[in-house]
C-alpha cells in the first residue's frame, strides 16, 4: 500500500476530507456514505468527533468532514467499523486517527481501503510523545510506502505501555495537529491557503488562552495532590501543575477494564481520605470500584471533577476544554 505520509518536525502529516456539517462552533458529523466524495470539496475523515471538529474549524467551507465516532455514547475502544465507514475512508483525501492503540478500528479500515493519494495524520506520531521504539516507525525512510500497514499494526492492540493515548487533553499536541491539517489542506487546495491560515491562527489563539489559564493554576497550586480513576485527563492535570497520587495499579486496572486488586483499592481509598484536592473521574468507564472511590471522595468533601473521552454533543473542542479548565479552577478554589 502506498498511502502518502510525511513527518515534518515531530509531526506526522496525513490528509483527507469527508463531508460533515459544521454545527455549534464546530461540526456535526454526517455519515461517511452520504458525505464522502460530495462535490469537489476535499474530504476529511476523522476517527472521532474531537479531531473532526478541529479539522472542520481549520478547513472551513473548503472541505467536508466526517467523524466515524460522532456521538458521546460511542466507545472508540470497542467500536466496530461499518461498511459505511469503509466507504468514507476509501473516498477520503485526508484521514485523522488518534493512533497509539486508542482507535484500533482505524487500522483495518485503512488496510481495506488502499489509496495512493490519501494522507493519514496519526496524532500519536504528531505528538512526539510515543515511546522511542514506537515512534521509530514514523521516522522510517520507507514510511511513504508502508504507512497504511503501520497504521494497522500499531493499532492492533489496546494500549502501548507507558503511553497515555488521550492526546486531546494535551494542548501542544492539538496545536501541532492544527498545523499539520493546515499544511496538508494548503498543499491540496492552495487557493484557500489564506482561509486555512486564518482559521489555524484563530484556533491557536484559543489554545493559547487555555494554556495561560492552566499556567495560572500551576502557579497557584503547583504539586497539589489529586487523584484520578484513569489517565484520561492526565495531560491537562500535569499542565496545571497538579500531582497525581493514584496508585498505578488502580488506574491501570480501570483503564484496561480489569478488576482492581483489593490492596490497590484500599490504597486508593486511603489516598482519597488524605485528602487530595480533587478526584478526576471518567464516568464513561465507571465500575463498582470507581463508584466506591467516588462515594469516598464525596464523603471526605473532596470535589469530584468529571472528564470524558469523547466530545460532548453540541460542543466544540475549545468550548469543551474551556469547561474542563473551569471545572478544575472551581474545584481547586473550593
From TrEMBL:
Membrane-spanning parts: none
One GO term describing the cellular component: cell envelope
Molecular-function annotations in GO: metal ion binding
Species the sequence originates in: Microterricola gilva
InterPro entries with a match to the protein in the record: Bact_metal-bind_prot9 (IPR050492), TAT_signal (IPR006311), ZnuA-like (IPR006127)
Gene3D superfamilies with a match to the protein in the record: Nitrogenase molybdenum iron protein domain
Domain of life: Bacteria
Name of this protein: Zinc/manganese transport system substrate-binding protein
Location relative to the cell: Cell envelope
PROSITE patterns: PROKAR_LIPOPROTEIN, TAT
Biological process (GO), any one: metal ion transport
Pfam families assigned: ZnuA (PF01297)
UniProt keyword annotations, A-Z: Metal-binding, Signal, Transport
Chain residue ranges for the region called Disordered: 133-157
Signal peptide range: 1-30
Keyword GTP-binding: no
